[in-house]
Amino acid sequence: GDSVTQMEGPVTLSEEAFLTINCTYTATGYPSLFWYVQYPGEGLQLLLKATKADDKGSNKGFEATYRKETTSFHLEKGSVQVSDSAVYFCALITYGQNFVFGPGTRLSVLP
Amino acid sequence: DTGVSQDPRHKITKRGQNVTFRCDPISEHNRLYWYRQTLGQGPEFLTYFQNEAQLEKSRLLSDRFSAERPKGSFSTLEIQRTEQGDSAMYLCASSLGTSGNTEAFFGQGTRLTVV
After folding, report:
1. Which residues of chain A have pLDDT under 70?
2. What is the pLDDT of residues B12-37, one digit of tens each?
3. Would you state the pLDDT for residue B96?
4. What residues in chain B have their Cβ under 8 A from chain A's Cβ atoms?
5. B10-13 and B5-7: which strand pairing?
6. Do A49 and A29 form a contact (C-beta atoms < 8 A)?
7. What is the rounded distance in angstroms from the CA atom of residue A9 to the CA atom of residue B87?
């Protein structure tokens, strides 16, 4: 079945550091890819998405590019803030199926 | 519309009791999903509906779990004879479109504690 693998956390960075969270996937079809974020005590929120190869999703300074050749969708941000501290989930969905989530990567940003 | 709402937000129950959770999706969304999340893990798929039809149910879901979506609007998830292993956050999400490839919007979840 479809699956998502993420780099294990926790990831701890200083404010203004560069962030990369790796995500790779396995899918039988042609999936749409998502990054969701979960802030402490809150529900999951969509951060960004990409629906076809080479699409770049972006939001709040975060970016991720759909790489079909490497089956990857790595999340990046050039300069993280303390307010970015959260758990980040990579997810996919293929036609007619359900969303499949990775295990999540906890990010802590120190001032 | 304020998004996906779930009720209750928290539920504490004794082992062996039945519990029922409710989810109200975004009004025009035809897809509704239920997920379970335990501490430090990603959401785990339970079941989903397209309108009132339950299209898929996880093999991980025992026969103690049942979900309904009458008239394709709100949904309920019932757990019978609860066990301590059922303690988790139960998440509901909804999305729009028959292709199923559009993003899902999540509710705040119902945290279940079985004592």
Report:
1. none
2. 999 999 999 999 999 989 999 999 99
3. 86
4. 33, 35, 40-45, 48, 55-56, 91, 93, 99-109
5. unpaired
6. no
7. 24
